[in-house]
Specification:
- By secondary structure, the protein is an all-alpha fold.
- About 70% of the residues lie in helices and about 0% in strands.
- The chain has 10 helices and no strands.
């Protein structure tokens, strides 16, 4: 999950993030889905933007190339467009997208095995040696990916100051220091810790209500 730039930060705050419930975001997804179903192009663009990072990461974790992952990403949303009228639980659209991406990824991986139909032993050995590991697609990994995605979505909806603070401290590959955050938002480094705490409380309310 998220890692604090200050690794000895408040454990209660971290636990709140790790154990959140996404009910409010599920309701947002349902409303967004209904707008897509009614033909709202802006809603469709928003849905794609919201889930592109999550969907693309599934085939990448399965060992597929950038090109293959892009194809799966596009195929997932084409399939969604084709099945809009069949989806009866719009609040679970995120789970539908993840499941669809996972099965399409497995389909590509399985198709590679079929390429050895010519019976070439060397080709078979090479293909098996390069076979992607399916373990990265385990449910626990997918759950973690979904949680990270939902947290990013929630942070993106916050006010600019909190969005900047939490993004710099938690969402960057290398977390920023308090001094660096302070320079960006125009505050002293010593004020970032209490500001961070207040922003995390706002995030808690956003993702648990």
């Amino acid at each position: 999950m998220l890692e604090n730039a200050d690794t000895v930060g408040n454990s209660t705050e971290q636990s709140t993030i790790d154990e959140f419930q996404a009910s409010s975001l599920a309701l947002e997804d349902a409303a967004l889905f209904r707008r897509c179903k009614s033909g709202d192009q802006a809603a469709w663009n928003e849905l794609v933007d919201r889930y592109q990072r999550l969907i693309y990461s599934i085939p990448r974790r399965g060992g597929l190339s950038d090109e293959e992952s892009s194809d799966i990403f596009q195929d997932v949303f084409v399939t969604l467009l084709q099945k809009l009228d069949e989806i009866k639980q719009p609040e679970k659209i995120r789970a539908w997208l993840v499941t669809t991406a996972k099965f399409k990824t497995w389909g590509v991986i399985r198709s590679r095995k079929n390429e050895v139909a010519d019976g070439d032993p060397e080709k078979h050995e090479l293909l098996m040696a390069n076979e992607p590991d399916l373990r990265p697609l385990a449910d626990t990994v997918l759950i973690e990916m979904e949680q990270q995605h939902l947290i990013r979505t929630a942070i993106a909806s916050m006010d600019e100051r909190c969005r900047t603070i939490l993004s710099m401290l938690y969402l960057q590959d290398k977390p920023a220091s308090y001094e660096e955050v302070g320079e960006v938002i125009g505050a002293g480094g010593t004020s970032i810790s209490p500001l961070r705490s207040r922003c995390l409380k706002k995030l808690e309310k956003l993702i648990t209500n």
